[in-house]
Structures are given as structure tokens and as C-alpha cells.
Amino acid sequence: MIQNSIDFGVCRLSIVPVRKEPAHRAEQVSQLLFGEHYEVIEISKDQNWLLIQVYYDGFNGWIDARQHHSISKEYFEHINKADFKITTDLVTSILYNKSPLHILIGSIIPISGSELFKMEEQFAFNGEAKSLGVKRDVESLITIAGKYLHAPYQKGGKSPFGIDAPGLVQMVFKISGYRLGRTVQEQLRQGREIKNPSDAQPGDIVFFNTSGKNKAHPAIVISHNKLVHVYGQVQVDSWNEQRKLIPSNKGEGYSILTIRRILTE
After folding, report:
1. 7-75: which CATH topology?
2. Cα dist. 161→38, 103, 124 in Å?
């Protein structure tokens, strides 16, 4: 339980639901993966829920107070500047305080080239990982996207066992070294616009109109006519010569709203 009115935390479980309201029945709007850190900005009246702001993307939501792991402000500020490792194995295990724990792709391991700052927790990790700040090329990004194939759609999900459309985009780019927002609305403002669809290239994000009400659906270009996106599950679909997305088993196509280029040239 939180002792101070201002607290900081880090996820020390494989995955933690982040909810819209302080209740287990509330909508899941995101998730914390192991190693993600945050600031507590409010405590529910019954002290069972914490409103947090995730440092990486500024996203706000409620977590169960029993799943909170408190850290000092000093260590929080150190994590902000540290270039820790991000895991690239679909699922791997670590020894955390001498106990095994399974963690998922995109988890943050507090291991870097510099000595850890007053690190009292004990970690042992020998899986595949890369430095969080190192930018990878488009071929690597496409390989990472492929690791999420067939992950089922889950509102607010960020894992290979349940993920939503902006979650897929954010996680693929995060692992590749590029920071994107958690929501479609934020992602629509990032990178630079590619005005001509024929100029789209692998690694670009294409936003489609799937509802007729300018509700954007993001997909990552992986070849001149293929995209990976979430449509019930993470899958690869085609876009036609008119640059409309043709999801599997669906006759009509979805038209483009915009294309954004994130990767540096």
C-alpha cells in the first residue's frame, strides 16, 4: 500500500491490466509489461486502486493497488535516463529475486552498459534483448511484427496473447527503437505524412477509415502490397491497386485516411 501522497512504481509482474475506471469490471484500456515504470497521480477513496501515468507514453489509467511495486523518486528518475534492455523473445523467463518469472516480448529488463543505480533487486536474464534506444532497420521491424502474428484482438492489449491495433503498432516500433503514443489519435500526429499512397514503403503506418466516421485503423506496411494489422487477430492482408485494405474474407475495401512515416531515412 502507498505510504506517501506522491509515489512511483515499476511493473514487477508479467502483465498488469490498466483500466478506465477503478474497478475490475471497468474497460481495459492498456497494459503494463514487466519493467514499465510510472507515476501514481491519484489513489481511489477505498485505496484499492491507483491512477497512474506511464512514463514511456504518458498514458493514464487505473491499476489494482496490490499489483503496484513502489520505487523511490531517485530510482524513477534514474530509469528515465537509463538505456535498459527490451526483450525480443516471444516469451522468456528471468530469475527475479531468485524466483523464476515468465515475461513477454517488449518487457524492460533493468540491465544496461552502466552499473545499476542502487539496484537492490536481483535479476538474472539470458534471453534475447536489445538496447531500448537503439533504432533497428525496416527488415528488423518487419521481423518483430511477424512475432505477433495470430495474436488475438484484445481491447487495451499489448502482448502476443492479446493486443489491439494501436498496441501492435506501438509495441513493434518500441522494440525497434521508435517511441509512439498509445492511442491512434496520438499516432496520427507522429512522423511525417506521405501524401501519395504510391510512395508508401515498408515500415510506414497506413491509417484506414473502417467505420465511415473517420475512425482510423492503423496497419504497418511490410511490402508493396501487404500490411500487418489487427483484424480479430494479428494478420497480414493486401491492399489493392486503389490502395484499399482488403481484410481476409471481407469483400469491401477500407480507404486510406493518411500515411505516416516514422523510420528515419
Report:
1. SH3 type barrels. (2.30.30)
2. 23, 12, 24
